[in-house]
Amino acid sequence: MSDANAGPLEGRVIAIAGATGGLGPSVARACAAAGATIALADRDAGKLDELVADLELPQYRVDSHVVDLLDEEATRAWCAALVARFGSVSGVAHLVGGWRGGEPLETAPLEDWAFLHDLLVRTVQHTSRAFSASLLASGHGRFVLVSSKQAQAPTHTNAAYAAAKAAAEAWTLALADGFATATAEGSGKATANVVVVDAIATPAMREGKGEDAFRTFTDAEDLASAICGVCGDGASAMNGQRVQLHGGSRR
Ligand SMILES: NC(=O)c1ccc[n+]([C@@H]2O[C@H](COP(=O)([O-])OP(=O)(O)OC[C@H]3O[C@@H](n4cnc5c(N)ncnc54)[C@H](OP(=O)(O)O)[C@@H]3O)[C@@H](O)[C@H]2O)c1
User: Fold this and answer.
1) Quick one: which atom of ligand 1 is closest to the CA of 94?
2) Residues 11-51: pLDDT tens digits?
3) CA distances, 219 to each of 187, 203, 250 (Å)
4) CA 22 – ligand 1 centroid, Å
5) Which in 8, 162, 199, 218 has the greatest CB count within 10 A?
6) Ligand 1 surroundings by CB, under 6 angstroms
7) Which pLDDT belongs to residue 3?
8) Which fold has domain 13-244?
C-alpha cells in the first residue's frame, strides 16, 4: 500500500555536489522536504557540518562527505561510499560554482580560463563519470547542471566564464544522449538536464533589501524547487533539455 503522506522524492537519494555554496542549502532543504535522503559533498568540513545541523534530518536521511571534486578518484570514492550506504543514488545536483571575469577578452588573463575550466568543466566531468552507472541502475536517475545564460549569450567581459559554462552544458547534453541510448537499450533509466539562470539571489542576499533588489535574479528557493521537480517522476520524460529560469522574475 502506498503512503499517502509520502513526498515525491521519498526513497530517493539525491547527491549534491558543491552543497555548501550559495544555492546548495536551498536545494538540500527542498529535496529533503520532498522526502529525499540528502548526500552532501563540498570541500569544507565545517560548512558541511553546519549544513547537516541546519537540515535537522534524522541521521539515516543525511550523509556528508568532504570531497575535492577536482580529484576524480575521490569523486568515484564518494559515489561508491553512497552506493555502499544506501544501495543506490537517484540524483546528482551539480552545483559547483565560481566566477572570474570583468575584463575584455583581449586583456583578460588566460589563467582565468584554466581556473574556470577546472572549476566548471572538470568537476562536471568527474561527477558525471563517477555517478552515471549508479544513476542508470537506480531506474530513475537524474543529473542536473545549473548553468548561466552567458553560455548562449556571452558578453565580451565574460568570455572565459561563458565558454566554460557552454562546455559544461555540452558535456551534460552528451551525458543525456548516453542516457537516452542506455534507456532505449533497456540497460537502466536516467536523464540529464540543464537549468539556466542569469544570476541567483540567496535568502541572505535578499535580507534587508527592498523589493527592487536583484530584479533579474532567480531566487534560490525557486531554482531549488525546479531542481526538485526535475528529480521527480513528473519529469521522467525530460532529457537533454535546457530549462530557462530567468526573465520572468516575480519581483
Ligand atoms: N551564483 C550565481 O549567480 C550563478 C549564476 C549562474 C549559474 N550559477 C551556477 O549555479 C550553481 C550554484 O551556484 P552557487 O553560487 O551556489 O555556487 P558557489 O557557491 O560558487 O559554489 C558552490 C560550492 O562548490 C564548492 N566547490 C568549489 N570547488 C570545489 C571542489 N573542487 N570540490 C568540492 N567543492 C567545490 C564551493 O566551495 P568554495 O566556497 O570553497 O569555493 C561552494 O561551496 C553553480 O554551478 C554556478 O556555476 C550560479
Assistant:
1) 45
2) 999 999 999 999 999 999 999 999 999 999 999 999 999 99
3) 37, 8, 9
4) 7
5) 218
6) 18, 20-24, 42-44, 67-70, 95-98, 119, 123, 146-148, 197, 199-200
7) 62
8) Rossmann fold (3.40.50)
Ligand 1 closest atom vs CA 197: 6
* Ligand 1 mean position, distance from CA 146 (Å): 10
According to DSSP H, which parts of the chain are helical?
Answer: 24-33, 45-55, 72-86, 111-116, 123-138, 159-184, 203-206, 220-231
Q: Could you tell me if 121 and 170 are in contact, meaning their C-beta atoms sit under 8 angstroms apart?
A: no
What residues have CB less than 8 Å from 237, skipping those under 6 apart? none
Pocket probe mutation, ligand 1, options 27, 29, 43, max atoms within 8 Å of Cβ? 43
Q: Which atom of ligand 1 is nearest to the CA of 145?
A: 45
Distance CA 137, CA 246 (A): 33
pLDDT tens digits, 128-180: 999 999 999 999 999 999 999 999 999 999 999 999 999 999 999 999 999 99
Residue 98 phi, psi dihedral angles, 5° rounding: 150, 165
Q: How far apart are CA 20 and CA 23, in angstroms?
A: 8
Kindly report the protein residue whose alpha carbon is nearest to atom 12 of ligand 1. Answer: 95
CA distance 134 to 172: 16
CA-proximal residue: ligand 1, atom 17 (nearest): 97
Q: How confident is the prediction for the chain on average, in pLDDT?
A: 95
